[in-house]
Specification:
Elements: H1 5-16, H2 20-33, H3 38-55, H4 62-65, H5 71-86, H6 92-110, H7 117-120, H8 137-150
Length: 151
């Protein structure tokens, strides 16, 4: 592949972690380093589309629906994209496009993505230890619990 794998890998990590400013800079680096071919144009369009769908949190977009923790599904998606990429009926643009998606699935299946606090339920409450007057959710919930127990 004529595009540097390190740049693409970093780009996928950034968009999955929703670091859009840095992802946009990385995408610009990818664009500058690629040659002007139809295959590369399709590859770049796929990268840009991934960026847009992730940034706009489109619920109907493929990338929003993919479970990044399901390595088997990611591998199946990769195989499907590789089949499209190898199909001779597709032009160079389409093969580049599907190649970008296959690379995305390959990289997502290999990286570990930290789970969000919302999904695990391990929310952390930060308080100032020296400030006793600071109202916190933890104190509020304790107060509600003790009030209910007293009733």
């Amino acid at each position: 592949m004529p595009i540097a794998q390190a740049l693409v890998t970093r780009y996928f990590q950034l968009i999955v972690n929703r670091q859009f400013a840095e992802a946009e800079r990385e995408l610009e680096r990818v664009k500058q380093k690629m040659q002007r071919t139809e295959w590369n144009r399709g590859y770049f369009r796929a990268l840009y589309g991934m960026y847009l769908s992730r940034k706009n949190t489109d619920d109907y977009a493929f990338l929003s629906k993919v479970d990044v923790s399901d390595k088997v599904a990611l591998n199946d998606y990769r195989k499907e994209f590789l089949a499209h990429m190898g199909n001779g009926l597709h032009g160079d643009f389409d093969r580049g496009y599907f190649s970008a998606w296959a690379d995305c699935m390959r990289i997502l299946s290999r990286i570990t993505i930290p789970t969000s606090e919302k999904a695990t339920g391990d929310t952390k409450i930060e308080t100032l230890k020296g400030d006793k007057s600071q109202a916190t959710i933890a104190n509020f919930l304790k107060e509600i619990k003790t009030t209910k127990e007293e009733e």
